[in-house]
């Protein structure tokens, strides 16, 4: 599903910053992976590249067999729309749109007819157990509910991969656990490929594979089928 | 992306979300369009009002009259008086065939007209029947002077509006009644109600037309005439004939043809041209000011859209992250700008049309139309849409440059 071969990325500022120093990563379809690292380790940059939000300088990135390199803005937008679902730390819902309208938005850009996309959006909200909140605006919902709306929005285009950037960063530990359970359920029952970027070991523990990244290089890759690494709220935040 | 109902609802939402801001921004455009259309319509009305003053006067008239010479010529000293007579009329007709009508006129100023103890000081003008081509009478009663009146030297007259109103305060048809003009009785044959402000030898209101030969005999002036009025044939401009007219008169009276003071030629065409260019100048100013105001409004829209885009960086970033193409963002911002300008402009049109309509109702008697044409309004509206696009261009370009990562950074 995801194939990264020797991907490099440098930010050219006043002081050139070599953020990713030859990343090789392989993620199969249906995997539930977390990328873990301290801030400044390059994990967000990696996620941006995975999400086609940013370009890389050298190397190769294949998503579902397609080489993602030097895409036009239009093509990038199309791939993002059809192949990738995003979940952000701060939910990034559009404040003046109701839950259902937020979920509809990716379909709007796909040109799905109005009624069809409304039905689908309601269906996904139902799936995530927040259909009753369809007509509410984000500021009327709790953090957990907002993240569920965001997940519904990410899922509605039936993407190849779901990218989550600190999905629990703005949530309390109880809600965090709910959201992570939700993600692993989605992975198990629907077979959605999920990549979570986090620095929280509790979050990483919920995933089946933990990729450690440090200073722009992939460290060890830990199989975590038993989820014994570190439970939520137990132990400290990994730094 | 297909355009559907939601696309328009999004635009509406975006504009309604900041009600007072949209309102204030739109006001600039609204006021600009209102001013433009109001001034265009009003200016048109004022123009008609002005032109009404010149109604009843041939716009292509040349008037020739003489004065003392100012240049010595062929043995004649300067400062000599000379007089025109019927021979000048005949010669002008012969020598300048481009002239349609050449007709003389003789005035008699400050004469009392009396009837039934009513008196009014009037001006008598002796003319021939062709004179109707110069000052077009509006006959309420009777007829104008005829060829027979002149040939038989009948003592008949056509009286002006105020003469009629003063001498015949009870109204009714005065034709056939005899009135005393300067000690002589004349039979009224017509009433002229023209009130053109452009006239020769006094206002038509207080004028009494009599046959030229009758007046010449009455005043013992022989063949003398005050002036000759001419109109040119078809579309020939009388101004182009001016020099030839001068030459004909000059040769007849042995006057230097370049002596512009001796032979004075007055072209009403010039007056009309002056009016015309004045009108053109005024309407140019109107459009300049109106368009300037609209333009200022559009710049306001552009500015506000800039601010809006800045504010909405996160939102636009999110949209980009979930699959909006740059073009979709661009068209969204431009559509917002166009919607704002066109909606505001539409209100401006409605208000301008209503106000002009009120003005039209207030001046109903004069029959002036103050209204702007449908075409002008539509032109203004489409211009506005174009301006909206232009105003949205820069902000939309900035919005297009927003990267999806900016959405996450801008926390």
How does this structure look, described?
The complex is a heterodimer of chains A (239) and B (411). By secondary structure, chain A is of the alpha/beta class. Chain A has helices spanning 43-50, 73-83, 99-110, 114-127, 143-155, 173-190, 201-205, and strands spanning 2-11, 17-27, 32-36, 58-63, 66-67, 84-87, 161-165, 193-198, 209-214, 217-223. In chain A, a hairpin with a 2-residue loop joins strand 9 (209-214) and strand 10 (217-223). In chain A, helix 5 (143-155) packs parallel to helix 6 (173-190). Mean pLDDT of chain A is 86; it is low at 233-239. The longest helix of chain A is centred in the last third of the chain and has 18 residues, at 173-190. By secondary structure, chain B is α+β, with helices and mostly antiparallel strands. In chain B, a hairpin with a 2-residue loop joins strand 6 (178-181) and strand 7 (184-192). Chain B is elongated, with a radius of gyration of 34 Å. Chain B starts with a helix and ends with a helix. Classes of the chains: A alpha/beta (239), B alpha+beta (411). The interface between A and B is medium-sized, with 32 and 27 residues.
